[in-house]
Amino acid sequence: MSKHETANATMVVDGRVLPEQLDERMVHDVVHGFYDEIRKDALLGPVFNGAIKPQDWPKHLMKMCDFWSSMMLRTGRYDGRPLPPHLAIPGLGEQHFRRWLELFRTTVTSLCPQEIAALFMERAFRIAHSFRLALAYSRGENTLEIEPITTNSL
Q: DSSP states of 96-112 as a string?
């Protein structure tokens, strides 16, 4: 396959054809825009800024671009384990995940066409629920009581 054919290949993820507008530039813009808001947020800013030193933000943003590129474009660039650092944050709870989802939704709806914003949000909701379950389990809490956060409940 030539370089031109590869660039125009149809990508199917989760049984759906990905819109052509969804590309690395959009992933980069979402990640950087989102974390700009996170760092300023009254609830999440202290959590993230406490866990990530100022000089480490560029590296973290590159890692998050790799993560979301792998999630959205199936590039396979991310090979880390995102859960363990979150398990180490004391007091991380539902209110933090709700705010994370609110800020993420605001970011993707402002930067992406509606169809792509919806794809980002589907994955974000799954990630939030998975992390909440893992946190509850690690704390010895009843995971059966953890309800997914939904669009309507934000």
A: HHHHHHHHHHHHHHHHS
pLDDT tens series, the chain, 154 aa: 334 334 445 666 666 667 888 999 999 999 999 999 999 999 999 999 999 999 999 999 999 999 999 999 999 999 999 898 888 888 899 999 999 999 999 999 999 999 999 999 999 999 999 999 999 999 999 999 899 998 888 8
SS (HEC) of 10-26: CCEECCEECCCCCCHHH
Residue 80's nearest CA partner among 90, 92, 100, 66 is 66
> Quick one: CA torsion of 136, 138, 144, 145, rounded to 10 degrees?
-20
Q: Count up the domains in the chain and report the number.
A: 1
Name the H helices within 57-93.
57-73, 83-87
Domain that holds residue 122: 22-75+82-153
